[in-house]
Hints:
It contains twelve helices and 17 strands. The protein is α/β, with parallel strands linked by helices. About 3% of the residues have low confidence.
Amino acid sequence: MQTMETTGYFERRATRGVRVGNVAIGGGAPVSIQSMTNTHTRDAARTLEQIRRLAAAGCEIVRVAVPAVPDAEALPDIVRGSPLPVVADIHFSTGLAIRALEAGAAKVRLNPGNIDDPEGLRRVIALAARLGRPIRFGVNSGSVRGAQQPAGGAAADSKDLGRLMVDVLMDWVRAAEKEGFRDLVLSAKASDVYTTVEAYRLLARSCDLPLHLGITAAGPMDEARTRSAIVLGALLAEGIGDTVRVSLTGDPVSEVVIAQDILAELGLRPWRGVRILSCPTCGRCGVDLIGLVEELQRRTRSVTAPLTVAVMGCVVNGPGEAREADVGIAAGKGHGVLFRRGEAVRKVPEAELLDALLEEIRALAAERA
């Protein structure tokens, strides 16, 4: 029976640990944040530029696509210049995985759903073992649905598909462990919430390996944020998950920001930057609260100190909420009362509310720098 480790608000599933460069995964280490570049990896300069942006946003591990030889040839420059451990994302070709490891990749991801090369897998495992690098076996529902479909017919529902993904993964785990290789991370991503959650629950019951959480093909910003929050929130609250990625169609820096928010709300890492608590507005609101909140969010994106800011639109819940934050306002008709650390500071006209809030935020951020 597996023991659990308490971190944040929840007990976490105990796993064996691996290291990806200087980042620990599993073994009681904090849940880490990953993202993936969307540049062409063979363009090392543009790829490194994006990696630096991801690192500045709080990313801890970065994955790059290696679909062809020119991409593998760019890896040495990327690995040397990257502030983050670089993971090579490999599909179809064990040969590219070998080239990526030789180029210095801190980890390779292999997809069991589209690689059918047992001898090549053994060579990758042997090289990873010699170099002391881990491997992630990462399967997604699209790759197993066709290539690995059992003879009895299609995976008819989400539970069957989730089990199929896990069966494929565990076959590879057994093959790796037969070779004496144990530095593994697993992932089983589907494009819908239910299949993904069911697959990870089954994986958690099937092994003690660290798990990389995410949902594949999550979509544009709004859809991706919702689906990712449901999947990551549900699993992390059950103690499942050691590293995460929020996948979305857009700037990967947004993936990092969303992942941080999810982990912070779950108590799995400290809050980074300004956390705005604002009311949904109603007929009692006497100021342009929506415009104020949108502009406040835009103008505090560069603040990294952990601060909670309450922006409340009326006197029903406003004073109480504002007092619970580091700084906040409770608005009345055409004005607001500014609070700092639970104490009312002064009454401010509506036109000056934003500047007053920003002044207090900058002062608090400077104290915590």
